[in-house]
């Protein structure tokens, strides 16, 4: 069976919300956030509790914008980068929604959107939700060094976004419509540098996007944008080169959320943004509104995740990566799909 | 929409495998494992890599027993207790199956089976797989103390199983059939003692099992066993009492995998077994074969998970828990269900 599933009913993303932090507000997409938190603690007493607040805000905003309450949601898919996904579980516990925890590292928003779409398309849920987040301060101390240590960052390292995205999928006659999705495979080409996630993840994006093109017969020119999650400068260059080797040009319409979120000249972010909240907030804050408004017609959203942990990386392991893909469109039907 | 989904086609669990360690072999279920590993490193150089081997073995045994190869699998759902679920990602990366990572702590086998069943029932996969694991040595050093420290364990603490379970769901005319499932909600009644997970998780099991009874109109007497994952002595007592308050007796047919896996008198396990691999291996090693053989006709499998991390627990947070449920049967249709 093909890893690409085309939707039978093309459900819509009926609501979406993006939450950010101070640095995200200062970047080029600052105006696209629904809410900005200048305080990295979000009025709690720890960064981890702060990250949970990001998810809580994202869910509440997405519900509010569609005049929904938590009881209207049949299933919520959520996850994040924190050990045991506590950003999510503590962020959403008060909502008492049926909940399925997912873990795809920075591909989590694509995995959640994919599962929410399949649930609604097969009438397993009338309204399904997805949420994810990341937080610079929680990620630094969990994956790298305590902030107080003031460690140097390598040129290939990326900046974890303090951000969250959330969305609601349901049947509707308003775009954006979900037209299809591709479930990714784990790809590991042996990159073991945890400060160069982009290089580790690019082959996974290549694998999944290629599978989508093969399964559907569509080509890059069928899309306004081919959006990756957080490959950053290094990973994006590798992805475009991998496609060029196959004589496929995605350079003209490739966008990477990690390269859009911050200003490279002004914000000292090295190779770009990263984290579950990077792809999540750029999808929910920037791309989904433009699809709804008709400013763009078709995108592939292929977020990528590096499925390692500091423990096994320190034991010398390379970094297995994955990418899940969702095809979002302004139209319910479009020529080119089979 | 109800949180309980009844299957339209009642797919089967066509293959299953249980892998264990030395202590699991010495317990009352020792003979039910497909493979035992006396070496806690499983011939690797770290406990974490050893845990990945547990999952690899479980997947390979489940495939072999049905004469399947990895290419036959349309989607694999997997997760475990390790930070970033690396037991799974490193265990299954070589198989190159479409993969969706899940996180439900010790409820992971129920979540994976639930998703695999829904995917097959809705023709999103012809063959879907689920896998999970836990390992005493990786869990101790990640959640509690380094083994070398020789810390004392409290009377309510549980023993993390060194075990893995894996299964394949597909359409078939051979039992066990999956008849339905209930997606759980996060429940947090304020228990914050990380050495008393059973007490934290029992209310989640109560919530999900009650929801199933309400949604279907079925009662405990419709089932040979109501199986929980790893509530242990303390959590099992609380679960039975919570039902008794509602005038429902589950005491006569309640079984807890955490109370079945080890010998309380001989094996010094305090309140019982725990870990994703506990429910996973007891389901795949003990209950599924008995359902296939017709020795038992109907069970509810309701694994529970504690969705905390040491970090937030040390910050004073209580323990949110969840339970997902799957109804397994020797018959495709049965009176009593609506």
TrEMBL record, chains A, B:
<dbReference type="InterPro" id="IPR038369">
    <property type="entry name" value="SpoVAD_sf"/>
</dbReference>
<protein>
    <submittedName>
        <fullName>Stage V sporulation protein AD</fullName>
    </submittedName>
</protein>
<dbReference type="Pfam" id="PF07451">
    <property type="entry name" value="SpoVAD"/>
</dbReference>
<dbReference type="GO" id="GO:0016746">
    <property type="term" value="F:acyltransferase activity"/>
</dbReference>
<dbReference type="InterPro" id="IPR016039">
    <property type="entry name" value="Thiolase-like"/>
</dbReference>
<dbReference type="InterPro" id="IPR010894">
    <property type="entry name" value="SpoVAD"/>
</dbReference>
């Amino acid at each position: 069976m093909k890893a690409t599933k085309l939707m039978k009913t093309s459900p819509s993303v009926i609501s979406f919300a993006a939450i950010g932090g101070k640095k995200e507000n200062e970047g080029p997409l600052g105006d696209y956030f629904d809410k900005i938190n200048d305080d990295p603690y979000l009025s709690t007493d720890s960064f981890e509790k702060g990250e949970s607040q990001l998810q809580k805000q994202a869910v509440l905003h997405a519900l509010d914008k569609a005049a929904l309450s938590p009881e209207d949601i049949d299933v919520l898919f959520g996850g994040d980068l924190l050990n045991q996904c506590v950003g999510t579980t503590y962020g959403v516990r008060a909502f008492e929604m049926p909940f399925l925890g997912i873990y795809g590292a920075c591909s989590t928003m694509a995995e959640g959107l994919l599962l929410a779409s399949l649930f609604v398309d097969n009438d397993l849920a009338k309204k399904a939700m997805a949420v994810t987040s990341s937080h610079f301060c929680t990620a630094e101390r969990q994956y790298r060094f305590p902030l107080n240590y003031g460690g140097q960052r390598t040129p290939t390292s990326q900046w974890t976004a303090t951000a969250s995205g959330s969305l609601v999928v349901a049947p509707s006659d308003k775009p954006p419509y979900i037209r299809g999705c591709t479930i990714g495979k784990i790809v590991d080409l042996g990159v073991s540098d945890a400060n160069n996630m982009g290089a580790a993840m690019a082959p996974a994006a290549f694998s999944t996007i290629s599978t989508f093109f093969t399964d559907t017969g569509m080509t890059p020119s069928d899309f306004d944008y081919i959006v990756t999650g957080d490959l950053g400068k290094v990973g994006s260059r590798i992805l475009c080169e991998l496609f060029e080797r196959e004589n496929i040009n995605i350079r003209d319409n490739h966008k990477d959320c990690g390269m859009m979120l911050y200003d490279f000249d002004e914000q000292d972010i090295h190779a770009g943004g990263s984290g579950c909240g990077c792809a999540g907030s750029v999808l929910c804050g920037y791309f989904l509104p433009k699809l709804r408004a008709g400013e763009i017609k078709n995108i592939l959203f292929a977020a990528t995740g590096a499925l390692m942990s500091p423990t096994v990386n320190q034991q010398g392991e390379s970094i297995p990566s994955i990418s899940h893909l969702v095809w979002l469109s302004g139209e319910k039907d479009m020529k080119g799909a089979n």
